Structure formats: structure tokens, C-alpha cells
């Protein structure tokens, strides 16, 4: 398990003022970047870890950009992982131990304008920082 930041862009000038499904489709079809922090074994982090109510921080230039409420839209993101593994298996693919599999966001997308330092932290999981120039 690890902390990740996904860099995405939108094809819509009016983002984020779009229908929810349009936002989702837009963000799933981009050529952004996935920045992944240090990975820790699941069995080290998972015991007593609250996957539904994470303690987390997200900031730009040391200013919090946390939404009023957080959480994964799927609820417990491990359910997405189970679905993904079963889907791969059903289509003849074996999930490899070196794959990085993401299970969605707890904070949603946030617009960052201009050069900035984006930093995030998930309690017991790790920290990450990205400098945008």
C-alpha cells in the first residue's frame, strides 16, 4: 500500500462545473501521471486500519485543499481490488506483484494553478510531495 497523487487534466474549459459522470469519464481518459510514494506491505498497514475514514492531509504550497468530507466513492476500496483481480482472472490475466493498482480517490480532483508544491499524507501509510513547475 502507498500514497499516490494522480496528475490529470480536463478537456473541458468549464471543469469542474460538469455533470459527475462527465467528470469521471474525462478523468479516466487522460494521459496524466501517477506519482507513487513508498510502498508498504498490506499486512503491515491493514490491521486496525480504517479504510472508510482515513486520517489524511492534502495541501498546495502548505495550504490545505481538503474537501469538507472525504472518502472513497466505492466505500471500502478493497472491494474494488477484489473486483479487479476477479475481472483480470476471468479474462485470462494474472495480476503481477509489481503492478501498481489504484482504487480511487479519497479527496476527489482539485485544480492546481501554476507552479506549486502538492503534498499529501495518509496516516500510517505514508507521505508524498510533487513539485509542479
How much strand content do the residues show? 15-25%
Radius of gyration over C-alpha positions, nearest whole angstrom: 16 Å
The structural domain count equals 1
User: Can you write the helix and strand succession as a string?
Assistant: EHEHEEHEE
What is the count of DSSP helices, taking H or I runs of 4+ residues? Answer: 3
Q: Give the helix/strand class.
A: alpha+beta
Helix content: 10-25%
Outline the biggest β-sheet: 4 strands, antiparallel
Structure description:
The protein has 133 residues and is α+β, with helices and mostly antiparallel strands. It has one domain. Helices cover 20% and strands 22% of the residues. It contains 3 helices and 6 strands. The chain has helices spanning 20-28, 42-45, 78-90; strands at residues 4-7, 33-36, 56-60, 63-64, 116-122, 126-132. The strands form 2 sheets. Strands 4-3-5-6 form a 4-stranded antiparallel beta sheet, with no helix packed on it. It starts with a strand and ends with a strand. The model has no long low-confidence stretch (mean pLDDT 90).
